[in-house]
Backbone:
């Protein structure tokens, strides 16, 4: 099984948000049926370097992918998109993590990263990988605060605009 037996990835995980959620916020798994809102949020957060519509459509339809959104009054204000490579590459991948510009600085990225980490760890994956732009100091601090270690800097990883990536990894005991 790709996800743990009996694990309902549509229900919120019980994670510690350390008091950063406001009363109208909830965490929820979104699917292809929320495609338009997901793509619009991606373009808002990554105006120059967003994913293609084809990429989103393909990945949202893949059973190995989970898109967790943080909603405020039903509107996406944060997201984390993960991929389970179990059996093929045996690691989990943080594909995308974003927080609405108006909601940044509230530790929401750390909460989303912890939720993704718990979901992938519960699937029995021995390690989780992710990356961020070299210039994204806030995300670099978030990876470190959530127990990820910098494994390498990959030159010219991003295209729009060109930039190096900081590659992070977190390993678990089997």
Residues:
């Amino acid at each position: 099984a790709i996800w743990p037996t009996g694990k309902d990835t549509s229900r919120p995980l019980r994670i510690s948000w350390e008091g950063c959620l406001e009363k109208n916020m909830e965490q929820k798994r979104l699917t292809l049926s929320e495609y338009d809102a997901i793509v619009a949020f991606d373009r808002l957060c990554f105006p120059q370097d967003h994913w293609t519509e084809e990429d989103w459509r393909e990945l949202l339809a893949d059973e190995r992918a989970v898109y967790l959104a943080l909603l405020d009054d039903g509107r996406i204000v944060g997201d984390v998109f993960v991929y389970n490579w179990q059996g093929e590459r045996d690691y989990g991948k943080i594909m995308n993590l974003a927080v609405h510009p108006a909601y940044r600085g509230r530790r929401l990225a750390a909460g989303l990263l912890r939720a993704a980490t718990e979901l992938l760890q519960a699937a029995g994956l021995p390690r989780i990988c992710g990356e961020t732009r070299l210039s994204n100091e806030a995300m670099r601090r978030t990876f470190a605060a959530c127990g990820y270690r910098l494994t390498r800097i990959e030159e010219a990883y991003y295209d729009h605009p060109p930039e190096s990536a900081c590659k992070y990894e977190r390993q678990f005991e089997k």
